[in-house]
Amino acid sequence: MEVSHSVKERTIAENSLVILLQGLCGRITTVELRDESAAVGRVTSVDAFMNVRLAKVTFTDRQGAVSHLDELFVTGRNIRYVHIPDEVDIRATIEEQLQAIHRVRCFGGRDKGRREFPCAKHR
Amino acid sequence: MADEVDQQQTTNTVEEPLDLIRLSLDERIYVKMRNDRELRGRLHAYDQHLNMILGDVEETVTTIEIDEETYEEIYKVRTKKGVNLSSQIFFCI
Fold it and tell me: How does pLDDT run across B23-49, given as a tens digit for each residue?
């Protein structure tokens, strides 16, 4: 469960559905691109801007030509659909990702470490 | 463990257009997209960018092929199984 090292990316991810895609790391999914090509492979990483890295990819381009790639990077802007595997529990995945971010944010405990939100209220 | 720094709040009143979408959660919706694409599916989740998670979704792409004499409209319907996340929603109804 890798959380981005950037505060900005963490915040963006935490406040949108990209966090679900980040929880799909390690799973095999189909990414359909805006130009109607499709890539099937294992998700290596997803960042806050929905840039996706895939491994062991079967790439079908617009014309239908199939090619196999070891790694593929897709810019977030070029993604139209991401297929979510049936076995994925969406709510649980999102909560796990949010907890991972929470752990990173509160690293060191209440009084230790540099705080992300200086005057955060602790409930 | 309490949800400490969770700043998201959910209200029950309809205040902005996105709230109207919230009313449609878990319902079947029809989404109109750019490039003459349509989706019909059950809305599981959405965000401020209108990324959506739809289940049991069917995508319809409308392409127009013109015969020389007659004006024919051809529909291509593709059915996707399972759940999709769409990142190119233009607007939805």
Answer: 999 999 999 998 888 888 999 999 999
Tell me the sheet residues that pair with A59. Answer: A39, A67
Q: Does B4 touch chain A (CB under 8 A)?
A: yes
**Where along chain B do its domains lie?**
25-91
pTM across the whole model:
0.80
- To the nearest whole Å, the CA of B25 is away from the closest chain A CA by 14
**Under an 8 A CB cutoff, do A17 and B51 touch?**
yes
What is the ipTM for the molecules in this complex?
A: 0.81
Q: What are the beta bridge partners of residue A45?
A: A53
| Interval A26-85: pLDDT, tens | 999 999 999 989 999 999 999 999 999 999 999 999 999 999 999 999 999 999 999 998
- Architecture of domain B25-91 in CATH? Roll (2.30)
Backbone angles phi, psi at B2, to 5 degrees: -85, 160
Per CB-CB distance under 8 Å, the chain B contacts of A62 are none
Q: What percent of chain B is predicted at pLDDT more than 70? A: 66
Other Cβ atoms within 10 Å of B26 Cβ, number: 10
Q: How far is A10 from chain B (nearest CA, A)?
A: 13
